[in-house]
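Annex B. Sample input.
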Amino acid sequence: MTATVSFTIDTPLGPRTTTAAYERKGSGEPLLLLHGIGHHLQAWQPVTDILAAEHEVIAVDLPGFGASEPLPQGVPYSLGAVAPALGALCTALGVERPHVAGNSLGGLLALEMGRSGLVRSVTALSPAGFWTEAERRYAFATLLTMRAGAKALPLPAVRRLSRNAVGRAALTGTIYARPARRSPEAVVAETLALRDATGFEETLAAGGSVRFTDDVPGLPVTIAWGTRDRLLLRRQGVRAKHTLPGARLVRLPGCGHVPMNDDPALVSRVILDTACSANSVAA
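Annex B, continued. Sample output.
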């Protein structure tokens, strides 16, 4: 069941309040899940039950995406602004230094939260920020094309396409290696999430100059990349490993850019292993 929480963040105009949507289940050490640009928290549904067997799982809609409100006026959708906002969200939820797993934009934010000392372990699935300029332009052009397509299609057409495997591939084949596995209802919902994301353009604009260049020492970090990622090519994982030499680099065979749907068992195991290793380090 999706719930909402209001929390306060600092802005150039003083403290401002915004509201975020989230789903919470399970028990154990908290695990925060962050989706990618244009998506919503439901991207994690293929793995949440598996993860909730060992953790209190908190999947959130990022500010300006899904059912969450946009950031308050004057707050940029930059890495340096959104990561502290997520820290404030955790505080509002009564969570201190959770484990975090993020995909794409969410992976980049997870790494920034790790760099800032806000979390106890990081699993980044195809994180943004390790691209060349040409790769960034390609990814952004692809995302803009997907957004334009989602806006252009009337809802009845989206529903009609979602009913068969070919249509689901047309709608989501850029991000999933196995789009036929996605349910028609999920495909409709995520197409609408992409169409209606109020923070999309500002997030994309803020990401134009983003490169993640710092190490994240002192906590377990896993970088995982799908071998069939068509949006952020897997060679970017090698660059991520060079930037974070202490991180574990994991291949996700047969997985696309959003791997949770392509291989839920493998993705869950990667996340759980990373969180477990944090306890080993602490011991």
